[in-house]
């Protein structure tokens, strides 16, 4: 089905029919000298991921139910061909599509689903979809990662945690409790619990009755001290690989809280973005950095990963310190206690790179082009903070809302694509970027940046607006360089 | 190569069609809110308890404000309400009357004797219905990228959510009196 589009002049971009995002102006986007941004698509609804094939066709995934879940808009897999026609390859039901990998005439799409995430393989010729991986635990909060294909031809993918901070609690969106009443985290290996249950109120009850909940348990179900929870292949917070038909699924790692972005760099390493804990509620954790992990187990031959590597969720922060460490003690909410009894699994860190808390690292890609430059650097989309909702700290209010270039060999980073002022463009009535959600290095040597659109947060509400998403393209043409 | 920017589903034909559908919903919203306000107006004089009467009077005042907010939402969505207000009010009155009659019958069948208490039951349903209609308008504002409509609808839904708690509380608080002791509010 072809979608209605209209070509936009620069003047039309200054007068969009969406008051939430009334204008777009590439001149308001700051890039290093020699680079220039342009608008490719505007009016997208909650886009979450994208891909570009060798012929230059761009695929953009509109997310369906996103952050927050309302309003749901069609979770479409859009296809922009080089001749400018735009159609929908397919559509995923409630939950919506998140990421796409293109290979051998097929599109591999991760979809959030209802209670469980899955991977669907679409035939690019006829649009038919076949589910090849299903049943990944999903509580509505954290996201699928990947799929991406490794140099070994295998498909790598992830799934974030069910709970925000290690125990299913009502401090996220109450709708998550309503929609997913029996979901819970699942460990990747057998764990023994401390029984440090969390007592909170039950917003699903007629009165604010108390509810006691344990780790790896549904809301309102306590855990016993010394109780053993069995690890499962299809755990939460996991990273897996499988053959392209979904067979031979192997768990590489677990304890990755929200592995939204995944990429294989030219060095053959698998890099994964991950988001920090929230500083609110009855298991609050402060100052946890966002991070990029290198998944070393991806180098192990297929089928030979014995014990999956552990990256810390639900008891360690991105810096390797326990969540109950003094440096992570919250200024709002109840401090976190240990959930998994000693000895904790061996930590697979440190991270390749640590970023400020609540930057909300999302999709990433690597520059493979000498023409584009910065070859080998990871370009990471920072969706931006949800403070004051998830952090009471003033310094967290501006974190994110940009694309950074990370050198995985040194652990350093530089801003690459930003607004003139920190924060989203709408906060300053500029025509710049709102919330970058994904980055794709195209075969033609350009860099596509997908912008989720306007998503506002204040102490009482979080609202996201349809038709405010934008696909940007960054090219290196010598703009602004001294002659 | 520079691509020409494309606007997705922001062409005038698509937007006009969506605005028309939104206007139709706002007509439904207006009728539901009018019916709720009218039912409140008829219930207040039936209530004997002075505190409950004060509460319902306050809700009635708020209901008038919320009824007027539909026009603000329409302006925020850049639509004109699909039907004139007089017709909308009439529709609301008919809906309110139908709901009231159903409530009387159902309340009597359930054993409640007092007219005010039976109205309270209907008010919980009517407020929930109209509140949900405002919440739908909020979703339309979000989907169409129109914050002004969202701000108004969100504020109304917040107030009506609190009103819903109060209506349910009063309805249940007097339930045993009405059913077992044949008394009214």
UniProtKB/TrEMBL annotation, chain A:
Residues 1-21, 412-431 are annotated as: Disordered. It comes from the Bacteria. Gene3D superfamilies: TolB, C-terminal domain (2.120.10.30). PANTHER family: LARGE, MULTIFUNCTIONAL SECRETED PROTEIN, LARGE, MULTIFUNCTIONAL SECRETED PROTEIN-RELATED. This is Glucose/arabinose dehydrogenase, beta-propeller fold.
Automatic annotation (TrEMBL), chain B:
This is Uncharacterized protein. It comes from the Bacteria. It comes from Geodermatophilus siccatus.
């Amino acid at each position: 089905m072809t979608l209605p589009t209209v070509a936009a002049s620069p003047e039309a971009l200054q007068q969009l029919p969406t008051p939430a995002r009334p204008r777009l102006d590439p001149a308001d986007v700051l890039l290093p000298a020699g680079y220039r941004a342009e608008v490719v698509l505007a009016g997208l609804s909650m886009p979450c991921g994208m891909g570009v094939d060798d012929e230059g066709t761009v695929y953009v995934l509109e997310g369906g139910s996103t952050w927050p879940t309302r309003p749901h808009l069609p979770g479409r897999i859009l296809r922009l061909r080089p001749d400018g026609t735009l159609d929908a390859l397919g559509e995923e039901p409630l939950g919506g599509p998140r990421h796409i990998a293109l290979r051998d005439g097929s599109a591999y799409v991760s979809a959030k689903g209802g209670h469980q995430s899955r991977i669907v393989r679409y035939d690019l010729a006829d649009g038919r979809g076949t589910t090849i991986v299903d049943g990944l635990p999903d509580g509505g909060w954290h996201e699928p990662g990947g799929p991406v294909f490794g140099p070994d031809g295998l498909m790598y993918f992830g799934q974030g945690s069910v709970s925000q901070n290690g125990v299913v609690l009502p401090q996220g969106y109450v709708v998550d409790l309503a929609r997913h009443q029996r979901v819970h985290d699942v460990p990747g290996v057998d764990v023994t619990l401390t029984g440090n249950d969390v007592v909170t109120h039950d917003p699903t009850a007629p009165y604010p009755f108390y509810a006691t909940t344990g780790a790896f348990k549904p809301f309102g179900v306590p855990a016993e001290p010394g109780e053993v929870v069995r690890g499962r292949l299809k755990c939460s917070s996991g990273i897996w690989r499988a053959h392209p038909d979904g067979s031979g699924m192997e768990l590489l790692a677990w304890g990755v809280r929200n592995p939204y972005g995944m990429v294989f760099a030219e060095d053959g390493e698998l890099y994964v973005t991950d988001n920090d804990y929230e500083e609110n509620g009855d298991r609050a954790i402060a100052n946890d950095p966002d991070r990029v992990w290198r998944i070393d187990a991806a180098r192990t031959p297929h089928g030979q990963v014995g014990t999956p590597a552990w990256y810390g969720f639900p008891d360690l922060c991105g810096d390797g310190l326990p969540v109950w460490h003094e440096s992570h003690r919250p200024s709002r909410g109840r401090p976190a206690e240990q959930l998994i009894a000693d000895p904790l699994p061996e930590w697979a860190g440190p991270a390749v790179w640590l970023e400020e808390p609540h930057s909300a690292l999302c999709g990433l890609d690597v520059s493979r082009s000498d023409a584009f430059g910065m070859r080998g650097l990871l370009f990471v989309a920072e969706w931006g903070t949800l403070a004051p909702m998830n952090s009471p700290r003033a310094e967290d209010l501006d974190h994110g809302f940009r694309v950074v270039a990370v050198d995985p060999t040194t652990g350093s980073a530089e801003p690459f694509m930003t607004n003139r002022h920190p924060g989203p463009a709408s906060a300053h009535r500029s025509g710049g970027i709102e919330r970058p959600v994904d980055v794709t290095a195209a075969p033609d040597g350009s860099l596509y940046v997908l912008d989720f659109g306007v998503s506002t947060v204040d102490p009482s509400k979080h609202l996201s607006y349809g038709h405010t998403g934008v696909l940007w393209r960054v090219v290196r043409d010598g703009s602004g360089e001294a002659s | 190569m520079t691509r020409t920017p494309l606007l997705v589903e922001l062409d005038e034909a698509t937007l006009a069609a969506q605005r028309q559908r939104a206007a139709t919903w706002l007509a439904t919203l207006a009728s539901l809110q009018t019916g709720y306000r009218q039912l409140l107006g008829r219930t207040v004089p039936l209530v004997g308890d002075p505190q409950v009467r004060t509460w319902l009077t306050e809700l009635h005042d708020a209901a008038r404000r919320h009824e007027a907010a539909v026009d603000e939402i329409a302006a925020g969505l850049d639509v004109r309400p699909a039907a004139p207000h007089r017709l909308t009010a009439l529709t609301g009155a008919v809906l309110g009357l139908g709901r009231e009659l159903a409530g009387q019958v159902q309340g009597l069948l359930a054993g409640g004797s007092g007219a005010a208490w039976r109205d309270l039951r209907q008010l919980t349903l009517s407020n929930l219905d109209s509140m949900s209609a405002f919440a739908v308008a909020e979703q339309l504002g979000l989907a169409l990228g129109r914050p002004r409509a969202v701000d108004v609808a969100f504020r109304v839904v917040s107030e009506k959510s609190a009103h819903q708690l109060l209506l349910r509380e009063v309805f249940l608080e007097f339930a045993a009196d009405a059913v077992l002791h044949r008394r009214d509010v």
